[in-house]
Amino acid sequence: MSLSLLRTSLRHTRPLTLAYRPLPSVRYVRIPLHTRTFSSTWIKYNDLKTTTTSSSIEAKPVATEGVAVAKGPTSRIGKFIQNSKDLIRFYKDGLKLLWSNNKEAKALQLRVQNEGYTLNRSEFQLIHQSKKDMLKLIPFGFVFMILPESIPLLVMYVPGMVPGTCLKDSQVQKTREKLDKVRQKMTANVLKSAEKVDGIAPADFLSLTKFQRMAKHYAYDFDLIRIDRPHLASYCRFMGINNIGTQGMLRKRLEKYMNYINEDDKLLLKENVDELNIKELSHAVEERGMRSIDQDEENMRRGLKYWLSLTHPANPENTIPVGLLVFSRMFLLNANYKGKQ
């Protein structure tokens, strides 16, 4: 039975949303003379204490006049104003970083064109991310200039429009968690359908030789040009890219994304996967349809190495078709790569 029968189990899900948590705020007030402060919510250098070396020595009061103590506004309007100021400052810094990254990316591209400079992976990632962020700059900048207070809603409901330099690590993590829920549902449907197909199991995709043998048998069915629009949309959704458009648009979008992954894979092969820090490793596995949520570092490294063995085999004839490669991620989403090198 063809693996293409399993595609019917894929479902569409609603777009990602992103929760917004207000930032803490502070303002400065004056403390009356001879007032001792012991609140644990205040900064340490304002926690004034006196000690005695004997019972005959008394602690002298410490003058606190003119000392600034951090204290947040109590009214709702005051909190809203302070939070708005903090957000504007954060997004302004993010836009400055975006502009700086874009200048550096252009300089690197000129070196490649004029001097034949070879990019390393971090430089390649900088150029790629800078291009993505610059495309988002116009709509994001328009909202920032007209109504900056509405940006949290933009982050919450349309995170794809926000440049990466204007996202916090906690916001990126929440985005990954919501994408993981989408992937888990799709994986559950595919595995349930796979039970009706003889000879197909997740273990088959964990074996390099079995996977390559399967790829030769089903290469025709999983050629992107032969996959219909609903399934192309599901593949795009699973890989975390935009799944809106016609069949031709989705196919080109997925091909472009997988070409980027292929170039990144080549650089990963030149460099050592073991040298990636946890942030780089998590980003790499998420881009390839694998999990970073609740995964130990060693399993992610093994999974990334196994991916590279599939995309760049010793024998080019054993290359896995893009459609089947993406489809296999649904079987291996929760895989344990123990024993894989």
Automatic annotation (TrEMBL):
| Keyword Lyase attributed | no
Reading the lineage from the top rank, the first entry is Eukaryota
Main subcellular location of this protein, as a coarse class:
mitochondrion
GO BP field? intracellular monoatomic cation homeostasis
Sorted keywords for this record are:
Membrane, Mitochondrion, Mitochondrion inner membrane, Transmembrane, Transmembrane helix
Question: Which InterPro entries does this one have?
Answer: LETM1-like_RBD, LETM1/MDM38-like
Q: Does the keyword Cytoplasm apply?
A: no
Q: How does it sit in the membrane?
A: Single-pass membrane protein
Q: What cellular component terms from Gene Ontology apply here? A: mitochondrial inner membrane
Task: Identify the residues that the record assigns to the Letm1 RBD domain, covering every copy.
Answer: 134-341
According to its UniProt record, where is this protein located?
Mitochondrion inner membrane
Q: Name one Pfam family in it.
A: LETM1_RBD
Show the GO MF annotations. Answer: ribosome binding
In Swiss-Prot or TrEMBL terms, this protein is called Letm1 RBD domain-containing protein
> To which species is this protein native?
Mucor saturninus
Per the UniProt record, the lineage of the source organism begins with: Eukaryota, Fungi, Fungi incertae sedis, Mucoromycota, Mucoromycotina
